[in-house]
Amino acid sequence: MGRRRVRQGQIEISAGVLLIGAALFLMLCHLREASLAARSSARVLYRLSAALPEEGSAGDVLREPGENALEESTESSEMLPDYVLHPEMAMPVQTVDGMDYVASLSIPSLSLELPVADSWSYENLRVSPCRYTGTAYRSGMVIAAHNYRAHFGLLDTLSVGAVVVLTDMDGNKFHYAVSEITTLPATAIRDMTDARYDLTLFTCTVGGYARVTVRCMRTEEQGAPDKHGVAPPGRAASCGRRKVKS
Length: 246
Fold this sequence. Notes:
alpha+beta; 5 helices; globular; two-stranded antiparallel sheet
């Protein structure tokens, strides 16, 4: 009887050691993936930043002195980004290492500056946050990322009112403030894509059974979307703008 108990104890100890070893292995794999993701995102962001237009570097038309002077003196005009004139347009993309990107995402309070891939897949999520659905040109855009510390791992530490800035590949900036932080079940797809929110960011909890969800609304600096969900112009580079006469 005593030997049986000793053997059972040895088996339980061995099983415990194996489980601890497996947990450590998974943790090391996760840390390695997180490190690779941080380096990949930084490399992509650097290349995207180099490709973005400088403010005032494009879209300006040089005219000879006096050319169209009468027209310019009698008609006022303003520059509007393309997405205001055509809110149904697709977000422009830049391609880096075979992946398409539609934006960069900045969360100053978390010291995060990240590229946003055009579409999500498990492979793409290993590199950067991904557009899950929607567009910045209307309300309801959703961005997903892994819970790597260098990606969305600290979303649950954000405070209501935290600043979020999205910059598309034409240099148009969209300013948001965090309005709500919640946790949704992994199956709550309809709730996650609720278009009442201008922007939603989400990531998995530890274990992947739920989603940390951050809801954002456009700030006064950007302006609220109209009744059709179309964003008004914010700070933008002149690339991609069109001249509209009033």
